[in-house]
Design a protein that fits this description.
2 copies of one chain form a homodimer. Chain A is built from 13 helices and 15 strands. Chain A is of the alpha/beta class and 399 residues long. The first copy, chain A, folds into 2 domains: 265 residues, TIM Barrel (Alpha-Beta Barrel), CATH 3.20.20; 96 residues, Sulfite Reductase Hemoprotein, domain 1, CATH 3.30.413. In chain A, the strands form 3 sheets. An 8-stranded parallel sheet of chain A has the order 8-7-6-5-4-3-10-9. Chain A has a 5-stranded mixed sheet with strand order 11-12-13-14-15, covered by helices on one side. The first copy, chain A, has a two-stranded antiparallel ribbon with strand order 1-2.
Chain lengths: 399, 399
């Protein structure tokens, strides 16, 4: 399948300095969990999120004191800021006046047409895009719980396709209001806690609309289980070329969301790595060293290196360099000793207690050589070649 | 897309009591990291893996003392056992004689035709299937490192498609030997540490062969990063209907591999849950309680319940029951108090310090009612309805 068939072509909208859609790199976003009116805490968390790799940060603005804090937060933020608006369209107007870079509106609780049109007018004046996001939960009114329960008792199939249809329909009705007001700076989302519903809902959106899509699984829970369902859904969509910005959401420190989103984009080569990539043997009955400990030690040591080299920790001498899959620096750990390899060449054999340090030394040395232009990383061509693979994005610059 | 278009139709092979392919549920497998000749440790680990949800367990048999341990291990194992064979075809013959349920052969290091034919004859006699697995690393000979590096310096595109072609070609050549010997009890794999290569390689295998596919990302590293690339690749393939058995492989306790594989199949509804599913608000600036702590407390408490109810921990009273997305038991935590809901009905309001216990009590109560037939779980139809969704498997029985 060629990239043309594969990738969901979208318009481009501009969120401050960050473009979404139209071939732009997939942007990572997260959301603060501080009280937005606590400027110091919010600015500090935005900073942590940006340093972890967030391109955009969203903040909740439930009350007027939250929107009142936005000018100071915006001034401090190294990345564009999105205001998350529910229930009160007035918060959107205040956020726009404060200079926020994007608005998220929930059509599940802001649907009054004159109110929505006031927000549209304000955003158009300042060229501020709006995300219209429906959630599975949000499309069901409280009074419809009984009806919903009845519906659920029928076939799961009917329930699911009906649900996705309802989500798309709700979005379509909402979008019509924007389009009738000549406003097309839109980003769309349709979230659920169910990975399958997320996959099907976004596939439906991609077939129907050319607005950029904001991917997310809602209410995924704690990272321990939430990351599996989030990565399964978002990974599937991204691998199909669907999605222009992602937010992974856990009940956890939002920095974890950003780290996981970054690793996901790295894994699918939708974002160039800026840090080492660690590959390692799974453990098995052939291994003669404490590989799990060695891998974790290497992982911690590598955190100080900011060169995207590929580092391999292998538990079998017999498998040899072929198994390290083009690693820049590798150790093949056998009984009592390890062979250190750099870019396919065996450098030396060290005793087991020297493996960690010897590997780390070679990583440092290679990082310096790469920095000074004396060496090239084995994966380097991946970042300079033209877009080739259906899964590669076509506007990415190395981060 | 209908299930017919979507699902990769495969033959069925039988691994002891566990069928693979031909519409059978996707089977979870893992691999022991004990020395196989240490019967006690190996049997104990197989038991832990089976209890965690592994349908099949693989063991390495590098030496004759490892295959010699197989009869005792097989007798103790609650699940079928696979022997992982490299380099020495003799180990395969010994494992077959010991009564192992499946053999994995690596054509990268066992390719001598008379040797392979001896293994085929032995397996045919006992109706033992064979997995033929190539790894990205394994297809490159040591002496080809230089050539490989040269190839890499060309376009990443060429490298990738060339690599996938090589992997498929190697498998095709190997399979020919089996087919010429009228042996079709095959399972195929083509692994890499690169999620994109894994996705593309298995898509290519699914287009070309009707043998069941064993999915895996090799050398994924520690779970912290390895699970993202593993779930992205395996989730994408499973969501496309590709894959009959999965092994997630980390440099970690293999029980973690099984837990993650199980959560992946649960998330994609390829396996019915047997334990509670926890959904929760992501944290945000609207939250007035320590939601992260509450979620973790709930997660720990739920570990004792073996009923697949959906439990929601929400941080916003205002969002109301609609947002809990059909949870069986939910708490909506606001400032100083929480509303407890059971299957959409508000049961009571409790003070903040009572939320955890009140939620847990309702979960226990519901579990009892479900056990005695007085209540039905909200997701119950999903497990009894016909296969409907393209992502649902069509042979699954509730585990």
């Amino acid at each position: 399948m060629s990239e043309q068939d594969h990738h969901h072509r979208t318009r481009r909208v501009q969120v401050g300095s960050v473009p979404l859609g139209g071939g732009a790199p997939v942007a990572i976003q997260s959301m603060t969990n501080t009280h937005t009116h606590d400027v110091e805490a919010t600015a500090a968390q935005i900073d942590r999120l940006a340093r972890a790799g967030a391109d955009l940060v969203r903040v909740a603005v439930p009350g007027p004191k939250d929107t009142a804090a936005l000018p100071e937060i915006l001034q401090a933020s190294p990345v564009p800021v999105i205001a998350d608006v529910h229930f009160h369209h007035q918060r959107a107007l205040e956020a726009v006046a404060a200079g926020v870079h994007k608005i998220r509106l929930n059509p599940g609780n802001i649907s009054d047409r004159p109110q929505v049109e006031r927000v549209i007018a304000a955003c158009r004046e300042r060229s501020i895009p709006i995300r219209v996001g429906v959630n599975e939960g949000g499309i069901v009114e409280r009074r419809d719980q009984t009806k919903r329960a009845a519906e659920k008792s029928r076939l799961a199939e009917t329930y699911h396709s009906g649900l996705i249809e309802l989500m798309v329909e709700k979005l379509t009705r909402t979008i019509r209001v924007f389009e009738e007001n000549d406003f097309t700076d839109l980003v769309l989302s349709a979230k659920s806690a169910d990975a399958r519903i997320v996959i099907e809902a976004y596939r439906a959106l991609a077939r129907r609309f050319d607005y950029p899509l904001h991917l997310g699984v809602t209410h995924a829970g704690p990272p321990e289980t939430g990351r599996i369902r989030s990565i399964a859904a978002l990974g599937t969509l991204l691998a199909e070329g669907i999605g222009d910005t992602v937010r992974i959401s856990y009940a956890a420190d939002p920095v974890v969301e950003v780290e996981d989103a970054k690793e996901l984009l790295n894994s699918l080569k939708l974002r160039a790595r800026t840090e080492p990539e660690l590959i390692a043997c799974p453990t098995c009955g052939r291994i003669e060293v404490d590989l799990i400990k060695l891998v974790q030690d290497v992982r911690r040591k590598l955190a100080t290196i900011k060169t995207p080299m590929k580092v391999a920790v292998m538990g079998c001498v017999v498998n040899g360099p072929g198994e390290a899959e083009g690693a820049d620096v590798a150790v093949f750990a056998g009984k009592g000793k390890g062979i250190i390899c750099v870019q396919g060449r065996q450098i030396r054999t060290v005793s087991e207690d020297r493996m960690l340090d010897a590997l780390y030394d070679e990583c440092l040395k290679l990082a310096e050589q790469v920095a000074s232009g004396q060496a090239q990383l084995s994966d380097a061509p991946l970042r300079v070649g033209p877009p080739a693979h259906p899964l590669a994005d076509d506007g990415a610059t190395p981060a």
